[in-house]
Design goal:
With about 600 residues, this protein is an alpha/beta fold. About 35% of the residues lie in helices and about 25% in strands. The structure holds fructose -6-phosphate.
Protein backbone atom coordinates (compact mmCIF):
# COMPACT_ATOMS: atom_id res chain seq x y z
CA UNK A 1 0.00 0.00 0.00
CA UNK A 2 0.93 3.67 -0.14
CA UNK A 3 1.31 5.36 -3.48
CA UNK A 4 4.47 7.05 -4.59
CA UNK A 5 5.05 9.48 -7.44
CA UNK A 6 8.19 11.34 -8.44
CA UNK A 7 9.17 13.53 -11.33
CA UNK A 8 12.34 14.96 -12.84
CA UNK A 9 12.41 16.93 -16.10
CA UNK A 10 11.45 20.19 -17.76
CA UNK A 11 7.90 20.51 -16.36
CA UNK A 12 6.80 21.86 -13.02
CA UNK A 13 6.87 18.81 -10.80
CA UNK A 14 4.00 19.79 -8.48
CA UNK A 15 1.02 19.38 -10.86
CA UNK A 16 2.41 16.12 -12.27
CA UNK A 17 2.88 14.69 -8.79
CA UNK A 18 -0.45 15.83 -7.34
CA UNK A 19 -2.39 14.48 -10.30
CA UNK A 20 -0.48 11.21 -10.01
CA UNK A 21 -1.13 10.96 -6.28
CA UNK A 22 -4.87 11.31 -6.91
CA UNK A 23 -4.71 8.38 -9.29
CA UNK A 24 -2.87 6.36 -6.66
CA UNK A 25 -5.13 7.28 -3.75
CA UNK A 26 -6.71 3.85 -3.98
CA UNK A 27 -3.45 2.58 -2.45
CA UNK A 28 -3.97 4.56 0.75
CA UNK A 29 -5.38 7.91 1.78
CA UNK A 30 -4.43 8.50 5.41
CA UNK A 31 -2.18 11.43 4.52
CA UNK A 32 -0.39 12.96 1.56
CA UNK A 33 2.79 14.94 1.09
CA UNK A 34 5.20 16.33 -1.42
CA UNK A 35 8.81 17.55 -1.48
CA UNK A 36 10.03 19.91 -4.20
CA UNK A 37 13.56 20.96 -4.95
CA UNK A 38 14.15 24.42 -6.34
CA UNK A 39 17.34 25.69 -4.74
CA UNK A 40 15.77 24.97 -1.38
CA UNK A 41 14.01 21.78 -0.32
CA UNK A 42 10.31 22.47 0.27
CA UNK A 43 8.20 19.97 2.17
CA UNK A 44 4.40 19.99 2.47
CA UNK A 45 2.36 17.29 4.13
CA UNK A 46 -1.12 16.90 5.47
CA UNK A 47 -3.25 14.27 7.12
CA UNK A 48 -6.18 13.12 4.97
CA UNK A 49 -6.63 12.83 1.24
CA UNK A 50 -4.63 14.55 -1.48
CA UNK A 51 -7.34 17.25 -1.67
CA UNK A 52 -6.45 18.27 1.91
CA UNK A 53 -2.81 18.66 0.87
CA UNK A 54 -3.83 20.79 -2.12
CA UNK A 55 -5.81 23.11 0.13
CA UNK A 56 -2.93 23.29 2.55
CA UNK A 57 -0.42 24.47 -0.05
CA UNK A 58 -2.54 27.30 -1.48
CA UNK A 59 -0.39 30.44 -1.62
CA UNK A 60 2.85 28.54 -0.97
CA UNK A 61 5.83 28.27 -3.29
CA UNK A 62 5.40 25.20 -5.47
CA UNK A 63 8.15 25.71 -8.01
CA UNK A 64 10.63 23.01 -8.91
CA UNK A 65 11.34 20.59 -11.75
CA UNK A 66 12.15 17.75 -9.41
CA UNK A 67 9.96 16.38 -6.68
CA UNK A 68 8.61 13.37 -4.82
CA UNK A 69 5.09 12.74 -3.50
CA UNK A 70 3.33 10.16 -1.36
CA UNK A 71 -0.15 9.06 -0.38
CA UNK A 72 -0.07 6.95 2.75
CA UNK A 73 -1.71 3.87 4.21
CA UNK A 74 -0.46 3.97 7.77
CA UNK A 75 1.67 1.11 9.10
CA UNK A 76 4.08 2.58 11.67
CA UNK A 77 2.49 5.51 13.43
CA UNK A 78 -1.08 6.80 13.29
CA UNK A 79 -2.36 8.85 10.36
CA UNK A 80 -1.19 12.41 11.13
CA UNK A 81 0.66 15.34 9.60
CA UNK A 82 3.90 14.37 11.34
CA UNK A 83 3.81 10.76 10.14
CA UNK A 84 3.00 11.78 6.56
CA UNK A 85 5.71 11.32 3.93
CA UNK A 86 8.05 12.64 2.59
CA UNK A 87 10.39 12.60 5.55
CA UNK A 88 13.42 14.84 5.92
CA UNK A 89 16.78 13.65 7.23
CA UNK A 90 18.33 15.21 10.36
CA UNK A 91 20.66 17.38 8.29
CA UNK A 92 17.72 18.66 6.20
CA UNK A 93 19.56 17.65 3.03
CA UNK A 94 17.64 14.52 2.07
CA UNK A 95 13.94 13.84 1.64
CA UNK A 96 12.45 10.40 1.08
CA UNK A 97 9.19 8.61 0.31
CA UNK A 98 8.64 4.95 1.07
CA UNK A 99 6.10 2.22 0.34
CA UNK A 100 6.63 -0.92 2.39
CA UNK A 101 7.79 -1.89 5.86
CA UNK A 102 11.26 -1.87 7.40
CA UNK A 103 11.00 -4.75 9.85
CA UNK A 104 14.25 -4.12 11.75
CA UNK A 105 13.56 -0.40 12.13
CA UNK A 106 13.43 -0.55 15.94
CA UNK A 107 17.04 -1.76 16.34
CA UNK A 108 18.28 0.67 13.69
CA UNK A 109 16.45 3.48 15.49
CA UNK A 110 18.13 2.63 18.79
CA UNK A 111 21.55 2.73 17.09
CA UNK A 112 20.77 6.12 15.61
CA UNK A 113 19.35 7.56 18.83
CA UNK A 114 22.59 6.61 20.59
CA UNK A 115 24.44 8.60 17.95
CA UNK A 116 22.28 11.63 18.66
CA UNK A 117 19.70 11.40 15.89
CA UNK A 118 16.29 12.92 16.60
CA UNK A 119 13.03 11.67 15.12
CA UNK A 120 10.04 13.79 14.39
CA UNK A 121 7.72 10.93 13.36
CA UNK A 122 6.89 7.37 14.46
CA UNK A 123 7.66 5.91 11.06
CA UNK A 124 10.10 3.25 9.96
CA UNK A 125 10.75 5.44 6.92
CA UNK A 126 12.39 8.23 8.89
CA UNK A 127 14.65 5.61 10.50
CA UNK A 128 15.80 4.24 7.16
CA UNK A 129 16.38 7.74 5.80
CA UNK A 130 18.61 8.74 8.72
CA UNK A 131 20.36 5.39 8.59
CA UNK A 132 21.30 6.17 4.99
CA UNK A 133 22.39 9.67 5.96
CA UNK A 134 24.47 8.32 8.82
CA UNK A 135 26.33 5.90 6.52
CA UNK A 136 26.93 8.69 4.04
CA UNK A 137 28.34 10.93 6.78
CA UNK A 138 30.55 8.29 8.38
CA UNK A 139 31.92 6.75 5.20
CA UNK A 140 32.14 9.98 3.21
CA UNK A 141 30.35 8.06 0.46
CA UNK A 142 27.98 9.20 -2.23
CA UNK A 143 24.27 8.89 -1.57
CA UNK A 144 24.11 5.99 -4.01
CA UNK A 145 26.87 4.09 -2.16
CA UNK A 146 25.32 4.82 1.21
CA UNK A 147 21.97 3.56 -0.02
CA UNK A 148 23.52 0.34 -1.28
CA UNK A 149 25.18 -0.30 2.08
CA UNK A 150 22.01 0.55 3.99
CA UNK A 151 19.81 -1.72 1.92
CA UNK A 152 22.04 -4.67 2.62
CA UNK A 153 21.22 -4.26 6.32
CA UNK A 154 17.54 -3.61 5.90
CA UNK A 155 14.98 -6.36 6.50
CA UNK A 156 11.60 -5.78 4.92
CA UNK A 157 9.98 -4.49 1.79
CA UNK A 158 10.35 -1.15 0.15
CA UNK A 159 10.18 1.16 -2.72
CA UNK A 160 11.98 4.34 -1.77
CA UNK A 161 12.72 7.49 -3.69
CA UNK A 162 15.23 10.08 -2.43
CA UNK A 163 16.02 13.62 -3.36
CA UNK A 164 19.20 15.30 -2.25
CA UNK A 165 19.60 19.07 -1.90
CA UNK A 166 23.27 18.74 -2.91
CA UNK A 167 22.41 16.87 -6.14
CA UNK A 168 19.43 18.72 -7.51
CA UNK A 169 19.55 16.97 -10.88
CA UNK A 170 19.15 13.40 -9.61
CA UNK A 171 16.49 11.15 -8.09
CA UNK A 172 17.56 7.87 -6.54
CA UNK A 173 15.13 4.99 -6.13
CA UNK A 174 15.31 1.40 -4.95
CA UNK A 175 12.93 -1.50 -4.84
CA UNK A 176 12.39 -4.75 -3.00
CA UNK A 177 8.95 -6.27 -2.77
CA UNK A 178 6.89 -3.16 -3.53
CA UNK A 179 6.17 -1.98 -7.09
CA UNK A 180 8.00 0.75 -9.01
CA UNK A 181 7.43 1.81 -12.60
CA UNK A 182 9.56 4.42 -14.36
CA UNK A 183 8.07 6.26 -17.33
CA UNK A 184 10.55 7.45 -19.92
CA UNK A 185 9.72 10.76 -21.59
CA UNK A 186 11.77 13.15 -23.73
CA UNK A 187 14.17 14.75 -21.29
CA UNK A 188 12.02 13.71 -18.33
CA UNK A 189 11.26 10.72 -16.12
CA UNK A 190 8.19 9.79 -14.09
CA UNK A 191 8.25 7.34 -11.19
CA UNK A 192 5.13 5.77 -9.71
CA UNK A 193 3.70 2.75 -7.91
CA UNK A 194 1.78 1.83 -11.03
CA UNK A 195 1.48 3.18 -14.54
CA UNK A 196 -1.68 5.25 -13.99
CA UNK A 197 0.13 8.53 -13.14
CA UNK A 198 2.40 8.04 -16.16
CA UNK A 199 0.23 7.12 -19.15
CA UNK A 200 -0.77 10.59 -20.19
CA UNK A 201 2.90 11.57 -20.61
CA UNK A 202 4.54 8.48 -22.05
CA UNK A 203 3.78 4.86 -22.84
CA UNK A 204 7.38 3.71 -22.52
CA UNK A 205 8.04 2.25 -19.10
CA UNK A 206 10.55 0.20 -17.17
CA UNK A 207 9.42 -2.02 -14.30
CA UNK A 208 12.23 -1.92 -11.75
CA UNK A 209 13.13 -5.35 -10.32
CA UNK A 210 13.76 -6.32 -6.73
CA UNK A 211 17.21 -5.39 -5.41
CA UNK A 212 17.73 -2.78 -8.12
CA UNK A 213 18.71 0.83 -7.59
CA UNK A 214 17.72 3.46 -10.17
CA UNK A 215 19.72 6.65 -10.63
CA UNK A 216 17.55 9.00 -12.60
CA UNK A 217 18.34 12.32 -14.24
CA UNK A 218 16.11 14.19 -16.70
CA UNK A 219 17.73 12.51 -19.67
CA UNK A 220 19.34 9.44 -18.16
CA UNK A 221 18.20 6.28 -16.38
CA UNK A 222 20.80 4.00 -14.85
CA UNK A 223 19.83 0.74 -13.19
CA UNK A 224 22.23 -1.15 -10.93
CA UNK A 225 21.99 -4.16 -8.67
CA UNK A 226 23.07 -4.02 -5.06
CA UNK A 227 26.49 -5.27 -6.18
CA UNK A 228 26.91 -1.99 -8.16
CA UNK A 229 26.70 -3.75 -11.54
CA UNK A 230 24.85 -1.97 -14.34
CA UNK A 231 21.58 -3.64 -15.43
CA UNK A 232 20.01 -3.09 -18.83
CA UNK A 233 16.61 -1.41 -18.43
CA UNK A 234 13.93 -3.45 -20.22
CA UNK A 235 11.65 -0.89 -21.84
CA UNK A 236 8.04 -1.99 -22.33
CA UNK A 237 5.11 -0.33 -24.09
CA UNK A 238 2.04 0.30 -21.94
CA UNK A 239 -1.21 -1.10 -23.22
CA UNK A 240 -3.46 1.23 -21.22
CA UNK A 241 -5.67 4.16 -22.20
CA UNK A 242 -6.37 7.22 -20.05
CA UNK A 243 -10.16 6.75 -20.34
CA UNK A 244 -9.84 3.41 -18.59
CA UNK A 245 -8.74 5.09 -15.37
CA UNK A 246 -11.32 7.90 -15.33
CA UNK A 247 -14.88 7.81 -13.95
CA UNK A 248 -16.60 8.26 -17.30
CA UNK A 249 -19.76 9.94 -15.96
CA UNK A 250 -20.42 7.55 -13.06
CA UNK A 251 -20.67 8.87 -9.49
CA UNK A 252 -18.05 6.43 -8.29
CA UNK A 253 -15.41 4.13 -9.71
CA UNK A 254 -17.10 1.25 -7.92
CA UNK A 255 -20.36 1.81 -9.79
CA UNK A 256 -18.53 2.27 -13.08
CA UNK A 257 -16.63 -0.95 -12.50
CA UNK A 258 -19.79 -2.89 -11.57
CA UNK A 259 -21.44 -1.66 -14.77
CA UNK A 260 -18.38 -2.44 -16.86
CA UNK A 261 -18.72 -6.14 -16.12
CA UNK A 262 -20.52 -7.28 -19.27
CA UNK A 263 -17.57 -5.77 -21.18
CA UNK A 264 -14.82 -6.93 -18.85
CA UNK A 265 -16.11 -10.50 -18.68
CA UNK A 266 -16.40 -10.46 -22.46
CA UNK A 267 -12.79 -9.21 -22.65
CA UNK A 268 -11.59 -12.03 -20.45
CA UNK A 269 -13.29 -14.59 -22.71
CA UNK A 270 -12.45 -12.87 -25.99
CA UNK A 271 -9.99 -14.67 -28.24
CA UNK A 272 -9.94 -17.61 -25.82
CA UNK A 273 -13.41 -19.12 -25.80
CA UNK A 274 -14.67 -20.32 -29.17
CA UNK A 275 -18.06 -21.95 -28.84
CA UNK A 276 -18.39 -22.67 -32.55
CA UNK A 277 -15.22 -24.74 -32.68
CA UNK A 278 -15.57 -26.00 -29.12
CA UNK A 279 -12.15 -24.71 -28.03
CA UNK A 280 -10.51 -22.75 -25.26
CA UNK A 281 -7.13 -21.32 -26.15
CA UNK A 282 -4.98 -19.65 -23.53
CA UNK A 283 -1.34 -19.55 -24.51
CA UNK A 284 0.00 -19.67 -20.94
CA UNK A 285 -2.01 -22.84 -20.33
CA UNK A 286 -1.36 -24.37 -23.76
CA UNK A 287 2.41 -24.04 -23.37
CA UNK A 288 2.31 -25.88 -20.06
CA UNK A 289 -0.63 -28.17 -20.59
CA UNK A 290 1.24 -31.40 -19.88
CA UNK A 291 2.49 -30.23 -16.49
CA UNK A 292 -0.90 -28.77 -15.63
CA UNK A 293 -3.02 -31.73 -16.68
CA UNK A 294 -0.80 -34.19 -14.81
CA UNK A 295 -0.73 -32.16 -11.61
CA UNK A 296 -1.25 -34.38 -8.57
CA UNK A 297 -2.73 -31.52 -6.62
CA UNK A 298 -3.55 -27.88 -7.20
CA UNK A 299 -2.91 -25.32 -4.48
CA UNK A 300 -4.70 -22.02 -4.93
CA UNK A 301 -3.11 -19.09 -3.10
CA UNK A 302 -4.74 -15.69 -2.72
CA UNK A 303 -6.15 -13.10 -0.31
CA UNK A 304 -9.53 -11.44 0.20
CA UNK A 305 -11.85 -11.37 -2.79
CA UNK A 306 -9.30 -13.23 -4.89
CA UNK A 307 -9.36 -15.98 -2.26
CA UNK A 308 -13.13 -16.19 -2.70
CA UNK A 309 -12.60 -16.65 -6.44
CA UNK A 310 -10.17 -19.42 -5.50
CA UNK A 311 -12.84 -21.17 -3.40
CA UNK A 312 -15.23 -21.20 -6.33
CA UNK A 313 -12.43 -22.47 -8.57
CA UNK A 314 -11.81 -25.29 -6.09
CA UNK A 315 -15.39 -26.50 -6.51
CA UNK A 316 -15.22 -26.16 -10.29
CA UNK A 317 -11.81 -27.80 -10.79
CA UNK A 318 -12.58 -30.72 -8.51
CA UNK A 319 -15.94 -31.25 -10.21
CA UNK A 320 -14.69 -30.97 -13.78
CA UNK A 321 -11.08 -32.16 -13.64
CA UNK A 322 -11.10 -34.54 -10.67
CA UNK A 323 -7.80 -33.11 -9.38
CA UNK A 324 -7.67 -32.41 -5.63
CA UNK A 325 -7.56 -28.69 -4.88
CA UNK A 326 -6.67 -26.82 -1.71
CA UNK A 327 -7.29 -23.11 -1.28
CA UNK A 328 -4.91 -21.24 0.98
CA UNK A 329 -4.81 -17.79 2.50
CA UNK A 330 -1.43 -16.55 1.29
CA UNK A 331 -0.67 -15.06 4.70
CA UNK A 332 -1.08 -18.44 6.39
CA UNK A 333 0.58 -20.49 3.68
CA UNK A 334 3.80 -18.49 3.72
CA UNK A 335 4.41 -19.00 7.44
CA UNK A 336 3.33 -22.56 8.05
CA UNK A 337 6.02 -24.65 6.41
CA UNK A 338 3.61 -26.09 3.84
CA UNK A 339 4.18 -29.45 2.21
CA UNK A 340 4.79 -29.06 -1.49
CA UNK A 341 5.28 -32.24 -3.46
CA UNK A 342 6.60 -32.92 -6.91
CA UNK A 343 3.73 -32.57 -9.35
CA UNK A 344 1.93 -29.92 -7.29
CA UNK A 345 0.78 -26.89 -9.15
CA UNK A 346 0.12 -23.50 -7.60
CA UNK A 347 -2.47 -21.09 -8.95
CA UNK A 348 -1.88 -17.59 -7.57
CA UNK A 349 -4.86 -15.27 -7.96
CA UNK A 350 -4.42 -11.53 -7.60
CA UNK A 351 -6.02 -8.44 -9.06
CA UNK A 352 -3.11 -6.11 -8.33
CA UNK A 353 -0.37 -8.69 -8.78
CA UNK A 354 1.40 -6.92 -5.90
CA UNK A 355 -0.19 -8.36 -2.75
CA UNK A 356 2.79 -8.92 -0.47
CA UNK A 357 1.56 -12.13 1.16
CA UNK A 358 0.65 -13.75 -2.15
CA UNK A 359 3.95 -12.69 -3.66
CA UNK A 360 6.05 -14.16 -0.86
CA UNK A 361 3.90 -17.29 -0.71
CA UNK A 362 4.54 -18.08 -4.36
CA UNK A 363 8.23 -17.20 -4.02
CA UNK A 364 8.40 -19.83 -1.26
CA UNK A 365 6.53 -22.39 -3.34
CA UNK A 366 8.69 -21.66 -6.38
CA UNK A 367 11.86 -22.23 -4.35
CA UNK A 368 10.45 -25.64 -3.45
CA UNK A 369 10.00 -26.54 -7.10
CA UNK A 370 6.28 -25.88 -7.61
CA UNK A 371 4.98 -24.71 -10.97
CA UNK A 372 3.27 -21.34 -10.56
CA UNK A 373 0.33 -20.31 -12.68
CA UNK A 374 -0.66 -16.66 -12.20
CA UNK A 375 -4.21 -15.42 -12.67
CA UNK A 376 -3.53 -11.71 -12.46
CA UNK A 377 -5.19 -8.52 -13.64
CA UNK A 378 -2.38 -5.96 -13.70
CA UNK A 379 -0.12 -6.61 -16.65
CA UNK A 380 3.57 -6.64 -15.80
CA UNK A 381 2.92 -6.77 -12.05
CA UNK A 382 5.25 -8.62 -9.68
CA UNK A 383 3.12 -11.78 -9.37
CA UNK A 384 2.65 -11.95 -13.13
CA UNK A 385 6.40 -11.72 -13.61
CA UNK A 386 7.19 -14.26 -10.94
CA UNK A 387 4.79 -16.89 -12.32
CA UNK A 388 6.03 -19.57 -14.73
CA UNK A 389 2.87 -19.21 -16.78
CA UNK A 390 -0.48 -17.63 -16.44
CA UNK A 391 -3.54 -15.95 -17.81
CA UNK A 392 -4.32 -12.28 -17.44
CA UNK A 393 -7.90 -11.52 -16.45
CA UNK A 394 -8.18 -8.45 -18.74
CA UNK A 395 -10.62 -6.62 -16.46
CA UNK A 396 -8.83 -3.31 -17.04
CA UNK A 397 -7.70 -0.99 -14.23
CA UNK A 398 -9.77 -1.45 -11.07
CA UNK A 399 -9.66 1.79 -9.10
CA UNK A 400 -12.49 1.33 -6.58
CA UNK A 401 -10.91 -0.16 -3.50
CA UNK A 402 -13.54 -2.91 -3.24
CA UNK A 403 -12.92 -5.50 -5.90
CA UNK A 404 -15.84 -6.10 -8.28
CA UNK A 405 -15.03 -6.53 -11.95
CA UNK A 406 -11.69 -8.17 -11.16
CA UNK A 407 -13.57 -10.90 -9.24
CA UNK A 408 -15.94 -11.80 -12.07
CA UNK A 409 -13.07 -11.76 -14.57
CA UNK A 410 -11.11 -14.09 -12.28
CA UNK A 411 -14.07 -16.47 -12.21
CA UNK A 412 -14.36 -16.40 -16.00
CA UNK A 413 -10.66 -17.15 -16.44
CA UNK A 414 -10.54 -19.84 -13.76
CA UNK A 415 -13.57 -21.56 -15.28
CA UNK A 416 -11.88 -21.55 -18.68
CA UNK A 417 -8.72 -23.02 -17.16
CA UNK A 418 -10.78 -25.76 -15.47
CA UNK A 419 -12.60 -26.58 -18.70
CA UNK A 420 -9.37 -26.69 -20.67
CA UNK A 421 -7.75 -29.08 -18.18
CA UNK A 422 -10.89 -31.21 -17.94
CA UNK A 423 -10.91 -31.62 -21.70
CA UNK A 424 -7.23 -32.55 -21.80
CA UNK A 425 -7.76 -35.16 -19.07
CA UNK A 426 -10.90 -36.52 -20.75
CA UNK A 427 -12.63 -35.92 -17.45
CA UNK A 428 -15.68 -34.26 -18.96
CA UNK A 429 -18.21 -35.50 -21.51
CA UNK A 430 -18.23 -33.62 -24.83
CA UNK A 431 -21.87 -32.61 -24.23
CA UNK A 432 -21.18 -31.12 -20.81
CA UNK A 433 -18.06 -29.39 -22.11
CA UNK A 434 -19.91 -27.75 -24.99
CA UNK A 435 -22.84 -26.85 -22.76
CA UNK A 436 -20.52 -25.05 -20.30
CA UNK A 437 -18.72 -23.26 -23.12
CA UNK A 438 -22.06 -21.91 -24.28
CA UNK A 439 -23.06 -20.99 -20.73
CA UNK A 440 -19.82 -19.08 -20.24
CA UNK A 441 -20.29 -17.35 -23.56
CA UNK A 442 -23.75 -16.18 -22.43
CA UNK A 443 -22.56 -14.66 -19.15
CA UNK A 444 -21.97 -11.05 -20.36
CA UNK A 445 -25.53 -10.89 -21.69
CA UNK A 446 -26.98 -12.23 -18.45
CA UNK A 447 -24.91 -9.81 -16.37
CA UNK A 448 -26.34 -6.96 -18.48
CA UNK A 449 -29.83 -8.19 -17.62
CA UNK A 450 -29.01 -8.04 -13.90
CA UNK A 451 -27.61 -4.53 -14.23
CA UNK A 452 -30.86 -3.40 -15.83
CA UNK A 453 -32.48 -4.14 -12.46
CA UNK A 454 -30.17 -1.79 -10.57
CA UNK A 455 -33.08 0.45 -9.49
CA UNK A 456 -34.88 -2.46 -7.88
CA UNK A 457 -31.70 -3.46 -6.05
CA UNK A 458 -31.31 0.14 -4.89
CA UNK A 459 -34.81 0.10 -3.40
CA UNK A 460 -34.03 -3.05 -1.47
CA UNK A 461 -30.73 -1.53 -0.30
CA UNK A 462 -32.49 1.54 1.06
CA UNK A 463 -34.83 -0.65 3.15
CA UNK A 464 -31.89 -2.27 4.92
CA UNK A 465 -29.43 0.62 5.18
CA UNK A 466 -29.87 0.93 8.95
CA UNK A 467 -29.08 -2.70 9.72
CA UNK A 468 -26.19 -3.16 12.11
CA UNK A 469 -25.45 -6.78 11.15
CA UNK A 470 -26.14 -9.07 8.23
CA UNK A 471 -25.77 -12.77 7.53
CA UNK A 472 -24.98 -14.08 4.04
CA UNK A 473 -25.76 -17.72 3.33
CA UNK A 474 -25.22 -19.98 0.35
CA UNK A 475 -24.52 -23.62 -0.48
CA UNK A 476 -22.19 -25.28 -2.96
CA UNK A 477 -20.92 -22.93 -5.64
CA UNK A 478 -22.92 -20.14 -4.02
CA UNK A 479 -21.27 -20.46 -0.62
CA UNK A 480 -18.17 -18.44 -1.64
CA UNK A 481 -20.54 -15.95 -3.30
CA UNK A 482 -22.10 -15.46 0.14
CA UNK A 483 -18.63 -14.87 1.64
CA UNK A 484 -17.89 -12.32 -1.06
CA UNK A 485 -21.25 -10.59 -0.54
CA UNK A 486 -20.53 -10.25 3.18
CA UNK A 487 -17.04 -8.90 2.53
CA UNK A 488 -18.40 -6.26 0.13
CA UNK A 489 -20.99 -5.09 2.66
CA UNK A 490 -18.41 -4.82 5.47
CA UNK A 491 -15.96 -2.89 3.33
CA UNK A 492 -18.35 -0.41 1.81
CA UNK A 493 -21.03 0.20 4.43
CA UNK A 494 -19.18 -0.72 7.65
CA UNK A 495 -22.08 -3.01 8.57
CA UNK A 496 -20.91 -6.12 10.35
CA UNK A 497 -21.59 -9.04 8.01
CA UNK A 498 -20.72 -12.71 8.01
CA UNK A 499 -20.85 -15.29 5.28
CA UNK A 500 -21.62 -18.91 6.09
CA UNK A 501 -22.50 -22.15 4.36
CA UNK A 502 -26.28 -22.14 4.73
CA UNK A 503 -26.39 -25.52 6.49
CA UNK A 504 -23.67 -24.48 8.96
CA UNK A 505 -25.96 -21.74 10.23
CA UNK A 506 -27.61 -24.17 12.61
CA UNK A 507 -24.29 -24.75 14.34
CA UNK A 508 -24.12 -21.28 15.81
CA UNK A 509 -25.01 -18.20 13.76
CA UNK A 510 -28.74 -18.91 13.93
CA UNK A 511 -28.56 -17.56 17.48
CA UNK A 512 -28.15 -14.10 15.93
CA UNK A 513 -31.44 -14.25 14.08
CA UNK A 514 -34.23 -11.92 15.20
CA UNK A 515 -36.70 -9.63 13.48
CA UNK A 516 -33.99 -7.03 12.85
CA UNK A 517 -31.36 -9.25 11.19
CA UNK A 518 -31.27 -9.24 7.39
CA UNK A 519 -30.25 -12.67 6.10
CA UNK A 520 -29.15 -12.63 2.50
CA UNK A 521 -29.51 -15.98 0.78
CA UNK A 522 -27.76 -16.78 -2.49
CA UNK A 523 -30.46 -19.18 -3.55
CA UNK A 524 -30.29 -19.58 -7.32
CA UNK A 525 -31.56 -22.91 -8.69
CA UNK A 526 -28.98 -25.67 -8.28
CA UNK A 527 -28.64 -29.18 -6.97
CA UNK A 528 -29.22 -27.99 -3.39
CA UNK A 529 -32.19 -25.80 -4.06
CA UNK A 530 -34.64 -27.68 -1.87
CA UNK A 531 -32.14 -27.68 0.97
CA UNK A 532 -31.66 -23.93 0.83
CA UNK A 533 -35.42 -23.43 0.73
CA UNK A 534 -35.53 -25.31 4.05
CA UNK A 535 -32.83 -23.01 5.42
CA UNK A 536 -34.90 -19.99 4.38
CA UNK A 537 -37.90 -21.48 6.23
CA UNK A 538 -35.74 -21.86 9.33
CA UNK A 539 -34.84 -18.17 9.25
CA UNK A 540 -38.42 -17.10 8.63
CA UNK A 541 -39.57 -19.27 11.54
CA UNK A 542 -37.34 -17.11 13.73
CA UNK A 543 -38.65 -13.85 12.24
CA UNK A 544 -35.43 -12.99 10.37
CA UNK A 545 -35.70 -10.75 7.32
CA UNK A 546 -34.85 -12.72 4.18
CA UNK A 547 -33.42 -11.15 1.04
CA UNK A 548 -32.79 -13.77 -1.62
CA UNK A 549 -30.86 -13.79 -4.85
CA UNK A 550 -33.04 -16.12 -6.90
CA UNK A 551 -33.31 -17.50 -10.39
CA UNK A 552 -35.96 -15.54 -12.29
CA UNK A 553 -39.39 -17.12 -11.90
CA UNK A 554 -38.64 -18.93 -8.63
CA UNK A 555 -42.09 -18.68 -7.03
CA UNK A 556 -41.19 -20.83 -4.03
CA UNK A 557 -38.50 -18.53 -2.68
CA UNK A 558 -40.38 -15.42 -3.78
CA UNK A 559 -43.31 -16.46 -1.58
CA UNK A 560 -41.02 -16.94 1.43
CA UNK A 561 -38.59 -14.04 1.16
CA UNK A 562 -39.15 -10.43 2.20
CA UNK A 563 -37.29 -9.24 -0.87
CA UNK A 564 -35.91 -10.99 -3.91
CA UNK A 565 -33.14 -10.08 -6.33
CA UNK A 566 -33.78 -12.14 -9.50
CA UNK A 567 -31.01 -13.16 -11.89
CA UNK A 568 -31.28 -15.08 -15.20
CA UNK A 569 -31.04 -18.88 -15.07
CA UNK A 570 -27.56 -20.35 -15.52
CA UNK A 571 -25.76 -23.65 -14.98
CA UNK A 572 -24.91 -23.90 -11.28
CA UNK A 573 -21.21 -23.96 -12.07
CA UNK A 574 -21.40 -20.67 -13.96
CA UNK A 575 -24.04 -19.01 -11.75
CA UNK A 576 -21.62 -17.41 -9.22
CA UNK A 577 -20.38 -14.93 -11.84
CA UNK A 578 -23.95 -13.73 -12.24
CA UNK A 579 -25.33 -14.04 -8.70
CA UNK A 580 -22.49 -11.94 -7.29
CA UNK A 581 -23.62 -8.84 -9.25
CA UNK A 582 -26.75 -8.00 -7.19
CA UNK A 583 -24.68 -8.35 -4.02
CA UNK A 584 -22.12 -5.86 -5.32
CA UNK A 585 -24.91 -3.40 -6.09
CA UNK A 586 -26.62 -3.99 -2.74
CA UNK A 587 -23.42 -3.05 -0.87
CA UNK A 588 -22.77 -0.11 -3.14
CA UNK A 589 -26.22 1.42 -2.67
CA UNK A 590 -26.18 0.87 1.10
CA UNK A 591 -22.72 2.47 1.35
CA UNK A 592 -23.82 5.47 -0.71
CA UNK A 593 -27.08 5.82 1.27
CA UNK A 594 -25.04 5.95 4.47
CA UNK A 595 -22.94 8.74 2.98
CA UNK A 596 -19.64 6.85 2.88
CA UNK A 597 -16.82 7.23 0.38
CA UNK A 598 -17.39 3.88 -1.32
CA UNK A 599 -14.35 4.22 -3.55
CA UNK A 600 -12.07 4.74 -0.58
CA UNK A 601 -13.49 2.95 2.45
CA UNK A 602 -11.83 3.77 5.75
CA UNK A 603 -8.69 1.89 6.79
CA UNK A 604 -8.40 0.07 3.47
CA UNK A 605 -6.09 0.29 0.50
CA UNK A 606 -6.35 -1.30 -2.88
CA UNK A 607 -2.95 -2.83 -3.13
CA UNK A 608 -1.79 -4.54 0.05
CA UNK A 609 1.95 -4.41 -0.42
CA UNK A 610 2.70 -4.96 3.25
CA UNK A 611 2.14 -8.25 5.02
C1 LIG B 1 -11.88 -6.78 -1.37
C2 LIG B 1 -10.54 -6.59 -1.86
C3 LIG B 1 -9.43 -7.30 -1.18
C4 LIG B 1 -8.49 -7.91 -2.23
C5 LIG B 1 -7.25 -8.51 -1.55
C6 LIG B 1 -6.35 -9.20 -2.54
O1 LIG B 1 -12.81 -6.03 -2.08
O2 LIG B 1 -10.31 -5.87 -2.79
O3 LIG B 1 -9.89 -8.27 -0.30
O4 LIG B 1 -9.18 -8.88 -2.94
O5 LIG B 1 -6.56 -7.50 -0.90
O6 LIG B 1 -5.88 -8.31 -3.50
P1 LIG B 1 -5.27 -8.80 -4.86
O7 LIG B 1 -6.35 -9.49 -5.62
O8 LIG B 1 -4.82 -7.54 -5.54
O9 LIG B 1 -4.14 -9.73 -4.55
Amino acid sequence: MCGIVAYIGHRQAYPVIVKGLKRLEYRGYDSAGIALLDGSLKLYKKMGKVAALEENVIGKSLDGNIGIGHTRWATHGEPSDRNAHPHMSNSGKLAMIHNGIIENYASLKQELIKKGYRFSSDTDTEVLLNFIEDIQKNNGSTLEEALRIALKRVVGAYVIVLIDKDNPDTLIAARKGSPLVIGIGKGEHFLASDASPIIEYTKEVVYVNDYEIAIIKSDELILKNLGNERQTPFIQKLDLELAAIEKGGYDHFMLKEIFEQPGTIYDSLRGRLDVQHGTITMSGIENNIDKIKDANRILIIACGTSWHAGLIAEYIIEELCRIPVEVEYASEFRYRNPIINRGDMIIAISQSGETADTLVAIETAKEQGAVILGVVNVVGSSIARLSHAGAYTHAGPEIGVASTKAFTAQLAVLTMIALRIAKERNAITPERYLHLLQELHDVPEKVSEVLEKADLIREVALKYQDATDALYLGRGYNFPVALEGALKLKEISYIHAEGYPAAEMKHGPIALVDEKLPVIFVATRDAYHEKIVSNIQEIKARKGKVIAVITEGDETVTSLADDVLPVPAADELIAPIISTIPLQLLSYYIGVAKGYDVDKPRNLAKSVTVE
